[in-house]
Amino acid sequence: MYRRRPTLTEYVVVRTITVIVSVTALYIMVMLFTPTSYQTPIFHLSLFLVAQLFLVVAAYFGARQVRKELKKVEKYLSGANSIKSLSVSTLFFTQEFENINLKLINILRKVKRREKEKRKYTAKIKLKNRQRSDMLSAIAHEFRNPIAAIMGYSQTLTEDEDIPAGLRLKFLGKIYNNGEKIEELLSRLLLWNRFESGNQKLQLSKFDIKPLAREIASNLEDKYKDREIIVEGEAFIVKADKALVEIVIKNLIENALKYSSEIIFVRVNKDDGVAVIDKGVGISRENIEKVTKKFFRTDEHSWDNSMGLGLAIVKQILKLHDTSLHIQSEESVGSTFSFKV
Question: pTM higher than 0.90 for the full model?
């Protein structure tokens, strides 16, 4: 049960009255029991000095009590006690000190919360900086290869005027392909930037998704001459952003081409949506949830130096369409990436 403690003023007044009453009572008792013959001036002076000494002792103990309470406050302020050791039930002999205790506890708790928030913010900043560093490293690597190829072929064409026409056309084709690769990398970065800033909007329309998948597969077969992509299933109409859905299907098929060497299957039907199936290296169980994070590259594929934006872009596009990417995978068996719109 809560017991109200006295204020400092009440404590001093009560203590003073107690001392006065005690001294008066003691004086009266001494006077009553002391014979008149002994009550000389020296006797009265001695009584007065004893009373003064009593007052001094009472003041000393009162001051020591106040000093004891101030020591508690000093410990709080100096951080001698941790926030866990502070207690609202700590006993103080006056209300003022109890109020100081409660206020200090609240202040220290707020400071503790702010420190925790500051640590979280600092950790977030460090993570952002690390991601930015990884991104710049990935971008530099991705751009370095095609730029080096363009510069190498261009230098060869410039320095050797006697290159056969067939070889010249081959080199020009290499330059064009690497330029196309740079354009694709820039497009991915710009698209991701629009997702990050929230500026990407949907341009909805109705279209048949199977012919779109066939067109994408045909274009990728032209790009990857020695690969085969089979599109099977039934035609059905969807309402979505056609340009963004095209990016999703293209990224998923290219991802399958990258991590497998066999035939890629694209299955399309109204009930299951679109599924891209490969018989490639697969993804470990612990990495399935991570592969759609931006700039993520698995340690399992040390040869993979891509930026790690392909599946992250897929995830963001599907999120805009209020749907998600489903991944089924087993290492050394293959993977299935599917979605519905």
Answer: no
